[in-house]
Amino acid sequence: MKEWFSVEKLKTFGMNKLIICLLVGVFLLVICIPTNSRKESDEEGLPETETLTETEELEQRLEAILQKVQGVGQVEVMITRTGEYNQIEGVVIVADGADIPQVKQDILETAEALFPIAAHKIKVCKMME
Predict the structure, then answer these.
(1) Lowest pLDDT segment from 5-9, 15-19, 48-52
(2) CATH number, domain at 89?
(3) Is the residue at 40 inside a domain?
(4) Which of 6, 73, 88, 91 is 20 to 30 A from 116, alpha carbon to alpha carbon?
């Protein structure tokens, strides 16, 4: 073993070859270091920017469908999600026609049908004039 690392061997091996071998070794170490891949981030949940986009899309789609229900009128929707698993935590719906009991019931039932949350986590309010 001492024969490989003797000063005479290093001199005959050449400084350029030694530097190249060291650089190759460093390169191999760098490519072997694990990095955060897309698959790992998918297991942990969506990144915040994607979560916001998905939530906003759900809000817009719910607003669009509720505005087509008779008596609802103008509507705004807010959806909140849990931090850990991005599950829907609550829904607030503000609508022009929410003061009419049947319309309010239709809005509530629509939200219950679309989202896997309990009715007490859905709040329907009359829109301010």
Answers:
(1) 48-52
(2) 3.30.300.30
(3) no
(4) 73
